[in-house]
Amino acid sequence: MTNRAKLLNLWLWPLFGCVIGWQYIFEGLNDPIHTDALNTYLPAARALLDQGWAFLASPASFRVVPLGYAWPALWGADPVWIRWANCVLWAGCVFSAWRCAILLGGFRAGVVTVLLLALHPELITYFPTELTEPIFLFGLFGWLWTLAEWLISRNESRGLQALSAFFLTLTLLSRPVLQLLVPLLLIGTLAVAWQLRRSHGATHLMTARLCRQMALTLAASLVLPALLVLKNGFYFGLWGLGTGSGTGLYLGTHPLFQGAEPAFLGFDYDVNDLVFMVGGDADHLSLAGDRAAKAVAFAHLSAMSLGEAMTFFARKLWWWMAHHPASLAAHGSVLRKVRLFEWLALVACASHMLWVAWRSGWSDLRRRVPAPGWPLALPTLVEGTAARQVVVLLLLFGFGGLLLAQLLPILYNSRYSSALLDPWLMLLTGFSVAYFAHPYQLRANLYRSRWHLSLMGRKIAANQRARVWPEALAIPALIVLAVMVFNTIRRYEVVAIDASNMPPHRQRLTLAADADVSANGMTRQPDGQWLMTESPAALVIPVSAEQVAALKIEPPYNALWDIRLTIRSDRARDCRTADVAYTRPAAAIPGHVSRLPLRPDSPPRRYAIHANKDLRPGEAGDLRIALHCPAGTTVQWHGARLLESLYAESAYRQRIRP
């Protein structure tokens, strides 16, 4: 490839990624303002503009991370100007990701990474907003690029180190999820440098020098965050960059919400109720509210049994790794399909690299690692570049893994999962694809006025035969496997309230087993059971005006239906779900959170579903349970209760109130 073609490729793919993002941002310049920005970020930015430096001495300054108000204030807190400025941040993300990827795994790694970033169904949606995700991603991708530039291309200039510290500072001040990992890395680099201080080997001397440079960069990135922490500590008694972590921990360990967004199961946030009990103010970002929420979260974690913790966090780990089904309903199934492909590609690449290293040694693995892309061309590569690439890979994998572990007790939503985990996964996936594609060349030739496209294997070593099959099937096989895993999981995945492990509650309404139940598509049997004659078929349980009036005296904030049914079917596979609705004079249409997963077996089962919004009895009507089971299924009604969740009240009484 000529230098001109290389230069074209160097700019073509990142420009392609920029254009896709810019088009989306331009279309969203006048979109509505996000709730978090409207209620938190923009008011803080306007206060900064009005009060100047005095704003930093007010309690409002710690209710949001520093760049949450400083970045919007830089653009006059004008949403349109902020979104225009985010176009620059998007370009910075694309070019940083591109450069980091081609240093890590060559041109193909760069192409894959840019495509994953530009075509991501969710990340780009945060750039035409006033949220902190754009500035965080800009800082994170920039820091990872400088890390690869420093270690792989051996650029040890002071300017690059200063730029690296700047980018890392941006990440810490915009979304401080690395505030624990960066000090740990600083301590680790200092420890290695101290251990090697008296070594005289060339490799040890180089490692010690790089560790000292890394330590200096990390320390510089912590200066401004540390000053802000000291300011908050001495002024307000808050030894952190801001509040909000308490709410994240409280909701992330909430047993009823299963550590995810309450809306996923039809509930509303109850953290403000807890905070109001503490200080009479429902502001969960206040210092007292943040501490109270954090105390409840830690107390609940300490009270968990080992089995409960394993079940709870295994479920959350899966959602962090592959997204919650409610997130797929919002952003499309491609969100999980791509994430599954990323994990499979990463596992396959790591497994193959370990197998090659164990079977053939480092020399063979070094030949298989794709060389960094242009302008660090093959003739200029020096000995040890492959080792440096592997070191950067291990750093990415280690940082990403530690971040995933750190996120487990935090509130899950797809916004956090995509913004915090995908940058690492994109770069690692780009390398993985490049690693499997490295032994092959795709050539296009013009012969006799016709284009000929060919896939050719190339020798990794002088004594090795060039092969195309079966290794060329690795990437297509991973794509097919990701789709198969997605379809299998979708068939069996259940998202529902755990009726056997519900938090404290009180009973507000009872529908007895001997209630005047009617049915559509069922016939009553002499033993009191119902036999389905068509599918779907529905049980209809009346709720009287007196029961509704008693419920309205003190309306519950978060309520749920506790339903007891026995379902028997010879075709259990075809009896999986029921739609629950509360019908008034105008029939309610159940949404996705009003769907119950069923277990058609002999014992009576408890099923729980929220009783908020359309499922809350607001007037006399019927609780309608439509079962999607085959004809011939028998159903026995054992009654139902409407329960009010008392988790916040119980947590306050047991763990906070003096």
Structural notes for this entry:
The strands form three sheets. Strands 3, 5, 6, 8, 11 and 13 form a six-stranded antiparallel β-sheet that branches. The longest helix is centred in the first third of the chain and has 40 residues, at 79-118. The chain is of the alpha+beta class and 658 residues long. Among the domains are: 180-240; 505-654, Sandwich (Jelly Rolls). It has helices spanning 3-27, 35-51, 66-74, 79-118, 133-151, 158-174, 181-195, 202-236, 245-252, 271-279, 287-303, 306-322, 325-331, 334-360, 362-368, 385-407, 414-437, 474-492, 545-553, 647-655; strands at 440-447, 450-457, 505-511, 518-520, 522-524, 530-532, 537-543, 559-568, 577-583, 595-597, 605-610, 621-628, 634-645. Mean pLDDT is 88; it is low at 376-380, 460-466 and 586-593. It is 54% helix and 13% strand. It is globular and about 90 Å long. It has 20 helices and 13 strands.
Structure keywords:
single chain, 658 residues, alpha+beta, Jelly Rolls, five-stranded antiparallel β-sheet, 20 helices
Quick rundown:
This protein has 658 residues and is an alpha+beta fold. Among the domains are: 180-240; 505-654, Galactose-binding domain-like (Jelly Rolls, Sandwich), CATH 2.60.120. It is 54% helix and 13% strand.
